[in-house]
Please model this.
Amino acid sequence: MSSATIDLLPATPEDADEIRALAESIWWRVYPAILAPEQIRFMLDWMYAPRQLRSEIASGQVQYQFFLLGGERIGYSAHHAGQESGEIHLSKFYLATQYHGQGLGSAALQALIAQARSEDARSLTLRVNRQNHAALRCYLRNGFHVIRNVLTHIGGGFVMDDHWMRLDLPLTVPGPNEPAPPAPPA
Ligand SMILES: CC(C)(COP(=O)(O)OP(=O)(O)OC[C@H]1O[C@@H](n2cnc3c(N)ncnc32)[C@H](O)[C@@H]1OP(=O)(O)O)[C@@H](O)C(=O)NCCC(=O)NCCS
Model:
């Protein structure tokens, strides 16, 4: 794995245009291999409508973060509470294309995993297009596994044909030589 460190920077509503521009750039470079151009346009307009993006960030229900490499914004993610208690759902995970294939996606994912652990999350989930082999490899190499396949009709005659994936984050227990935590007061 790359030894680079990725820092996470929470986005604000004022960052919505920058996030949308990054999304446009990445989607049109990567997804023509797996989606028709009409579906790319439909999904970008659906997922990155500026007003919706701003209100999602402002409400705090969805947390957007930039990936920082040496202070430069090289990608972004979004996550929100999952369906189960202690679950975090990673709904967006994107790296600018000039940074692909260098281990930086894995470094960004590790930063998100460390953040989830620090918040006592029990699992991380996500969905990924079944033909998105580079992303799938990245998730598998970082410990995620496929839990099921889901075909979703999203309107406009389009479907999302995805793997649902999960990473379990077991609670860390003290090793045999580590001191046990103090007993609670009687
Ligand atoms: C998903 C995404 C962030 C993963 O990033 P990535 O760079 O492809 O994956 P990693 O960071 O794990 O990098 C590993 C690759 O870099 C290569 N690499 C080169 N130098 C490396 C280094 N020093 N350390 C680790 N890997 C290195 C590996 O060989 C590997 O290549 P491979 O996948 O062809 O086998 C990126 O592909 C992306 O943004 N895709 C478009 C958006 C997208 O589809 N997001 C997912 C939506 S669900």
Remarks:
- The chain has one domain: 7-168.
- Residues 1-2, 26, 30, 93-95, 100-106, 128, 132, 134-135, 137-138, 141 surround coenzyme A (CB under 6 Å).
